[in-house]
Write a structure and sequence with these properties.
The chain is 67% helix and 6% strand. The protein is mostly helical. The chain has a single domain (4-143), classed as Peptidase M41 (Methane Monooxygenase Hydroxylase, Chain G, domain 1, Up-down Bundle), CATH 1.20.58.760. It has a 3-stranded antiparallel β-sheet. Helix 2 (47-64) packs across helix 4 (99-118) and helix 3 crosses helix 4 (99-118).
Length: 155
């Protein structure tokens, strides 16, 4: 049996990986070690994509394990707080503080949650593959997503 902590980490990291791919970034690899999704040119991606990718891991974690401490650093996933901190810095860098930053933050959180909901079957497939193998290449992430789409279409 897989530990609940590892399950939570797999869904968190799968959220980052799937949303990265769906937003057009190339995923090099993903593992069940927190903070270990390698994405080509992440830092040069538009700020909004960076924010959505960071938030996607958190919302995938929350959807899978709603009672996990998905909004803070914790033993289950120490990078959760880091993701929020980074999002806050990115929003501040783009929009400063005040009304515009608050409204943009609300938009980004809602959009990330919508992306996770819309691509949940893919996130679930990647998380399950991660739990089986521990590490996936970008090609394996793509294959897991493709297989999830095929499975859904055959129903």
């Amino acid at each position: 049996m897989v530990s609940p902590r590892l399950d939570t980490v797999a869904y968190h990291e799968a959220g980052h990986a799937v949303v990265s791919r769906m937003l057009g970034l190339h995923v090099k690899s993903v593992t069940t070690r927190p903070g270990s999704v390698l994405i080509d040119r992440f830092s040069s991606a538009p700020t909004e994509k960076q924010i959505l990718i960071l938030l996607a891991g958190l919302y995938a974690q929350r959807r899978f394990a709603p009672h996990s401490a998905w909004r803070s650093r914790n033993q289950s996933h120490p990078n959760s707080g880091y993701d929020f901190d980074t999002v806050a810095l990115l929003i501040h860098d783009e929009h400063g503080s005040g009304r515009v930053a608050d409204l943009y933050s609300s938009y980004a959180f809602a959009k990330a949650e919508q992306l996770v909901e819309g691509w949940w079957q893919h996130i679930e497939a990647v998380a399950k593959a991660l739990l089986e193998r521990g590490t996936l290449t970008g090609a394996e992430v793509h294959q897991a997503m493709f297989d999830a789409t095929k499975t859904r279409q055959s129903r």
